[in-house]
Amino acid sequence: MKPMEHVIEIKELKKSFGENDVLKGIGLNVSRGENVVIMGRSGEGKSVTIKCIAGLLTPDSGSLKVMGDEVKELAEDGLKKMRRKLGFVFQGAALYDSMTVRENLAFPLKKVLKMKDREEIERTCREVLEAVGLNDTLEKLPSELSGGMRKRVGLARTLIVKPEIILYDEPTTGLDSITSKEISNLILEMRKKYKTTSVIITHDLSCAQITGDRILILKDGVFAAEGTYEELENSSDEFVRSFFK
User: Fold this and answer.
1) Domain named ABC transporter: which ranges (predicted)?
2) Would 79 be classed as within a structural domain?
3) How many whole angstroms separate alpha carbon 88 and alpha carbon 70?
């Protein structure tokens, strides 16, 4: 049987901000096609972890490889190339308020993929909007969309450049429970359709249960527990169980 390919490999990763030691030697391997959820209380370093993966923060020590490349050793060109394979779905969807949905989607096509053919840009925008179930919103501004719709457009804009890895930062924050489940199920649908690998940061138990093949819990700068939702929910460790109440 062919061994699983690790698209993210983290060993003994440390990151401090002044006197504050946030990550104290974490380790994590993420296999191609896997959805890994990271949970932890506020300030435990969840967002720091995915910012290090994306090369937005530089670790103090340890190893972090994405697609086999040591991120801290990449020059600017190498970082740009790596980031084309990475999608980042921000907490607030991070859409440009003054641009229509079409313009928001076309922006990375022109900027990142250097597309110039108008018809190809239009077709690609419509395809990805259809994938997230919003094909009638092309002319709308972000302010005209609900919170859940903005999250979908944010996901569409990430998917439009066909990333191999998607980093989700609290994808269901601020949504009601029904919309939250819709977004969580959409994350699964998009993995199936676009063959993505995902690292998902969330406080939302429903999102963790729906999306996560594996869940890790950060505590005091290290991963204190790892397993499926059911395994962690029934853990003998009281701290771990406290997340699932």
Assistant:
1) 8-245
2) yes
3) 19
Strand partners, 16: 21
Would you say residue 167 lies in a domain? yes
CA angle 224, 229, 232 (to 5 degrees): 40
Kind of pairing between the strands at 35-40 and 6-17: unpaired
Rounded to 5 degrees, what angle do the CA atoms 237, 51, 153 make?
A: 100
State the CATH number of the domain containing residue 184.
Answer: 3.40.50.300
SS3 at position 14: strand
Q: Who's near 51: CB < 8 A, 6+ residues apart?
A: 57
Decide: helix, strand or coil at residue 61. strand
Residue 20 resides in a domain: yes
Inside any domain, residue 131: no
pLDDT mean for each 10 residues of the chain (245 residues): 77 94 95 95 90 92 94 89 86 80 91 87 91 88 89 89 92 88 91 93 93 95 94 91 84
137 in Cβ contact with 129 (< 8 Å): yes
